[in-house]
Every structure is written in C-alpha cells, then in structure tokens.
C-alpha cells in the first residue's frame, strides 16, 4: 500500500465567491514534514481542510494511501489523520489530561478505556507535559497550550498529522520546540506531517519539503514542491510574495536564511 496522501488536479470554491484553488497537485509522504507556504488568503487552510475530507472538492480527487478519500467515513478518516486547526483547544474548563484524552475519541465506543487512559499518559510523558496533567487549560502559557494541542493529535495514533499555522503567536523558543517536535515524530514514528507556515526560514530549517501555494484569479496553484533549497529561489519568492528576497548562507553555508533585499538607491 502506498504511504502517500495525494491531491490530483484539485479545485475548490465557496459558493458566490471567486475560486480558491485550481488544479492543485500535491504528493505527501510518510516520514517527512512538508511546509505549506504562501501569502495570506492563498488558500492554505482550505487545502488542509480538503485533504482532511472536511470540504469536498469541486474538481479533482484526493487519495489517502491509494484509496479515494470520498470512500472513507468520518471515523475512518479520524483513525488515519489528525488535525490541529488554528483554534484547537476548547474554551470550556478542562484539565490538560482531559484535553489530550479527547484525541482518543475515534478509538472509543462508549467512553475511555484503560488503553485510552494509558496512551494519554504516555503521550504526556513523551512531550514532557506529565507535570501539567491536572492543570486547567486556561492556566497555561501560549507555548504550553500549543504543545497540548500537539499531544492531543499524537494521542489520536494516526499516520498523518495536519497542522494549520501551529506556531502563530508563539515566541521564538516555542516555535522551535513545536517545529522540532513535528520533525522528530515524522522521522521516528514515520508520520506524514503537513503544516502551514508564514516563516520561510523556519520551513527551511525544519521541513523536509516545501510546497509554494500561489494565488491567481482562477484559484491558487502549487507553484513548486520539493526540497527547500531547490524550491525556494529568488524568482519564486518574488512570484509568491511580491517582494525581492536574497539569501544569507552564514559561515557553514548549510542552512540559508532569507531576507528582503535592500532597496535600490
């Protein structure tokens, strides 16, 4: 069975609005992190929701490990794919343990069993959150809350993890912790991870591949997808973001950093 999540000639538009996506082709592989890049309004969240089966494409198809996504029930999708939206945690009172336990819901019949409780505890321990297990969610910092959302998704025990701007509103330390965690679980647990980002340099540092989503009047398309150093060129950066960019390679020259080009005199 192929370990891939594929979008083929995918198109989508909301009724009464301009098209959002047009002829999107994208192949994701387990064991890798793919960073979805593009300007605001390019359709990154819409594409994530289509890949999860939360929206139905107007054209094209999505294959999850060789099977059409439309042939899978909601529970079958939830057993294979976990989703972390931008607003991921509930607003009503609950503890960290209870929030992570929600990730086990697709596996439950009537309520949490011993295995669900054990998997929740194991996930908290793996992420270093066991000391916070009984703390209320509203007592956590932003970085702690984001780690809890990842813990809930990991407790779901799926092969695919889709994250919508997982480091927005986090300070630099917590951005690095969250993205490093995403890369480690992809490699060690052979998960396929797709996450949307705004920070190009974070994508270069932590993603195995990047996909550039470029808006157009007919709907956004994937301009290029592949290794970050091959996909991210000055020409493509100008096409995608509308500004001139240049790289700085530093002393070791291994991980380039992108900066806006200085204005011409």
UniProtKB/TrEMBL annotation:
<keyword id="KW-1278">Translocase</keyword>
<feature type="domain" description="ABC transporter">
    <location>
        <begin position="5"/>
        <end position="240"/>
    </location>
</feature>
<dbReference type="GO" id="GO:0016887">
    <property type="term" value="F:ATP hydrolysis activity"/>
</dbReference>
<dbReference type="InterPro" id="IPR003439">
    <property type="entry name" value="ABC_transporter-like_ATP-bd"/>
</dbReference>
<comment type="function">
    <text>Part of the ABC transporter complex HmuTUV involved in hemin import. Responsible for energy coupling to the transport system.</text>
</comment>
<keyword id="KW-0067">ATP-binding</keyword>
<dbReference type="GO" id="GO:0005524">
    <property type="term" value="F:ATP binding"/>
</dbReference>
<dbReference type="Pfam" id="PF00005">
    <property type="entry name" value="ABC_tran"/>
</dbReference>
<keyword id="KW-0813">Transport</keyword>
<dbReference type="InterPro" id="IPR003593">
    <property type="entry name" value="AAA+_ATPase"/>
</dbReference>
<keyword id="KW-0547">Nucleotide-binding</keyword>
<dbReference type="InterPro" id="IPR017871">
    <property type="entry name" value="ABC_transporter-like_CS"/>
</dbReference>
<dbReference type="InterPro" id="IPR027417">
    <property type="entry name" value="P-loop_NTPase"/>
</dbReference>
<protein>
    <submittedName>
        <fullName>ABC transporter ATP-binding protein</fullName>
    </submittedName>
</protein>
């Amino acid at each position: 069975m192929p370990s891939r999540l594929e979008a083929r000639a995918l198109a989508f538009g909301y009724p009464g609005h301009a098209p959002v996506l047009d002829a999107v082709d994208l192949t994701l592989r387990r064991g890798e992190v793919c960073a979805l890049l593009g300007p605001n309004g390019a359709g990154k969240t819409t594409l994530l929701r289509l890949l999860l089966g939360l929206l139905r494409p107007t054209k094209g198809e999505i294959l999850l490990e060789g099977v059409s996504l439309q042939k899978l029930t909601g529970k079958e999708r939830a057993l294979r794919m976990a989703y972390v939206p931008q607003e991921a945690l509930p607003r009503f009172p609950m503890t960290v343990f209870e929030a992570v336990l929600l990730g086990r819901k697709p596996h439950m019949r009537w309520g949490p069993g011993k295995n669900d409780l054990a998997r929740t505890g194991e996930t908290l321990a793996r992420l270093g959150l066991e000391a916070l297990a009984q703390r209320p969610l509203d007592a956590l910092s932003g970085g702690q809350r984001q780690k809890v959302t990842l813990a809930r998704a990991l407790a779901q025990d799926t092969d695919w993890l889709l994250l919508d701007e997982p480091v927005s509103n986090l300070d630099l330390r917590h951005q690095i912790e969250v993205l490093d965690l995403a890369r480690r679980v992809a490699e060690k647990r052979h998960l396929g991870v797709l996450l949307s980002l705004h920070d190009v340099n974070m994508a270069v540092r932590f993603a195995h591949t990047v996909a550039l989503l470029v808006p157009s009047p007919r709907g956004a398309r994937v301009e290029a997808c592949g290794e970050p150093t091959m996909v991210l060129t000055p020409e493509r950066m100008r096409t995608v973001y509308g500004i001139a960019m240049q790289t700085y390679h530093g002393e070791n020259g291994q991980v380039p950093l992108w900066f806006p080009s200085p204005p011409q005199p």
